[in-house]
Write a structure and sequence with these properties.
Number of strands of chain B: 2
Order of helices and strands of chain B: HHEEHHHHHHHHH
CATH topology of chain A: Rossmann fold
Strand order of the largest sheet of chain A: 6-7-8-3-9-10
Radius of gyration of chain A: 18 Å
Low-confidence stretches of chain A: none
Largest sheet of chain A: 6 strands, mixed
CATH architecture of the largest domain in chain B: Orthogonal Bundle
Number of strands of chain A: 10
CATH class of the largest domain in chain B: Mainly Alpha
Oligomer: heterodimer
Distance between the termini of chain A: 32 Å
Strand content of chain B: under 5%
CATH architecture of chain A: 3-Layer(aba) Sandwich
Distance between the termini of chain B: 43 Å
Strand content of chain A: 25-35%
């Protein structure tokens, strides 16, 4: 597994102004594996996730130390093009956030902004992405209708399809099912399982069962520090530290 | 105890209701006053002819055309500059001291009395830039006066666009400009347009900024270029009511002109509201 590390960070520190939100985080993400980041609210797992596609850059007064690598490129190198980075490292957000455009236009958006002009090609990729996100059958007859008419679960799968359309290598998911009902959640989880054959997925979740169900590896964060990381089965059955055990058995958090 | 709380609530709701009623009554009284005295003046001739007999008879066509021309120049000047400023302030500029100072400046601009804009327009556009009294100078003056309104409305509209849209767009590898152009602006557009039309309708009724810069006492000719002087509805009312040759005899013309102006302004506002609800429906927000 050492040889196919898709993304990794080494001693990553992150500051909001003077407040240090992340302390020396080192994690390796293997290609085509699902890694779950768990921990109580405010532990830094979402902040960490947003370091990986530099979404944190939008916040004024932030600072990053240490190394964050995509393949063998340092993503915080001044010469790196953030726009290209974000195309390669896609993101799905906590609340479904389709644009107030048609279903088709939502998916086509990423292609258009990345310079794809060929209409036939766009149509083809839109269909392929919707199929990949397991929502094609539900929307194929109304792709020109507004995406805001879809249910919450459908909207979130549409957002996943939208992220997939630009063909990312890594997909970051920030609590993608926390705003959804159990059935919609189950569909998202099945989808994550399917996608993991083609993509490296990093998912933040509050739901420990979800982490156990969808991920290969799990990292436990607490107070901005990485406490423990291991294969998901091992972490949930034989946690190495008392703190981890307390959290996953629900004694705090 | 419960009874007392319910009674307190009733009293307060009654106060709120009265406030709204006063508001509505003011509009109703103004409309009734002007309608009842002005409608007799309205005729085909009144709307399509120039004033005659030292402005004691005839119509107000040059004023209607003049006001529309001034509005056109105003919106052509103020809309692009206002929206561009709002985008810069809200989307691009690093929020800091400089932006705070600029905002303060804009807010103060909004509080400057309209007569001061008129004097500024006279000094700068008419004299320094040698535009003379013209549609261009008057429209520019009104445009500058309307800028703060348009910037304010546009900033509000941009702020109301959920940040999740921006994040979603950037996360797909769109540039900041693509995000603004293709996601943020279409969503903010209804608010921007509505705010701008409301600002424009305010400008359409202003007298002070145009009395030295764009509008004249009397000219029977319609403008053929933006460097022509024009008559304008609000200034015409002012002239007839204070400086006309026979003020009493032209009362009905004054009310008629006021009615035309009010219909024009209310029409613009109504158009703005309909346009907004149409565009919102299209976006489904």
């Amino acid at each position: 597994m050492e040889s196919n590390i898709k993304m990794h960070t080494e001693n990553l520190d992150f500051f909001y102004g003077n407040f240090q939100a992340l302390h020396h985080i080192s994690i390796e993400f293997a290609q085509n594996r699902v890694t779950a980041l768990i921990g109580p609210s405010g532990c830094g797992k979402s902040t960490y996730l947003r370091c990986l596609n530099r979404m944190n850059d939008l916040i004024p007064g932030i600072r990053v130390n240490g190394l964050a690598m995509l393949g063998n490129q340092n993503i915080y190198d001044p010469s790196i093009d953030v726009v290209t980075l974000r195309r390669r490292v896609g993101m799905v957000f906590q609340k479904p956030n389709p644009f107030p455009k048609s279903i088709f236009e939502n998916i086509a958006y990423g292609l258009k902004v990345n310079g794809v002009k060929d209409k036939a090609k766009i149509t083809e990729i839109v269909e392929k992405s919707l199929k990949q996100a397991a929502i094609w059958d539900e929307v194929k007859d109304r792709v020109n209708e507004s995406a805001l008419g879809l249910s919450g679960g459908q909207q979130q799968r549409l957002c996943i399809a939208r992220a997939l359309a630009v063909d990312p290598e890594v997909l970051l998911m920030d609590e993608p099912a926390s705003a959804l009902d159990p059935i919609a959640t189950q569909k998202i989880e099945e989808l994550i399982n399917e996608l993991s054959s083609k993509l490296t997925i990093i998912i933040v979740t509050h739901n420990m069962q979800q982490a156990a169900r969808v991920s290969d590896r799990t990292a436990f964060f607490y107070m901005g520090k990485l406490i423990e990381i291991n294969d998901t089965d091992t972490l949930f059955t034989k946690p190495g530290l008392k703190q981890t055990e307390d959290y996953i058995t629900g004694r705090f958090g | 105890m419960i009874k007392k709380r319910l009674f307190t609530q009733k009293i307060w709701f009654l106060c709120l209701k009265i406030a709204v009623l006063i508001n509505g009554a003011a509009l109703a009284v103004i409309l009734y006053f002007i309608l009842s005295r002005g409608w007799r003046a309205i005729s085909w001739e009144f709307l399509t002819q120039a004033p005659r007999d030292s402005m004691t008879a005839g119509g107000i066509l040059p004023c209607i055309v003049g006001t529309i021309c001034l509005c056109l120049v105003t919106i052509l000047v103020a809309l692009p500059i206002g929206v561009a400023s709002a985008i810069y302030l809200n989307e691009y500029a690093t929020q800091g001291k400089l932006v705070r100072v600029i905002r303060l400046g804009i807010n103060n601009l909004a509080g400057v009395p309209s007569i001061v804009f008129g004097l500024f327009g006279l000094a700068f556009f008419c004299i320094v830039l040698k535009m003379g009294v013209s549609v261009a100078a008057g429209g520019l003056t009104l445009g500058i006066m309307t800028l703060p309104v348009i910037i304010g409305a546009s900033e509000e509209a941009l702020k109301s666009v959920p940040n999740t849209y921006r994040e979603a767009s950037l996360a797909m590898g769109a540039t900041k400009w693509q995000t603004i152009r293709r996601v943020v602006l279409p969503v903010a557009f209804p608010g921007i347009i509505t705010g701008s039309i409301l600002g424009l309708s305010r400008a359409a009724g202003e007298t002070a900024p145009i009395m030295y810069t764009g509008a004249v006492f009397f000219t029977p000719d319609l403008p053929t270029s933006i460097f022509d002087e024009v008559m304008a509805l609000p200034y015409h009312i002012y002239v007839l009511a204070t400086a006309g040759t026979n003020i009493e005899a032209t009362r009905h013309l004054q009310y008629g002109t006021a009615l035309v102006l009010i219909v024009l302004v209310l029409g613009m506002n109504l158009f703005a509201i309909i346009l907004r609800s149409k565009m919102r429906k299209k976006l489904r927000i």
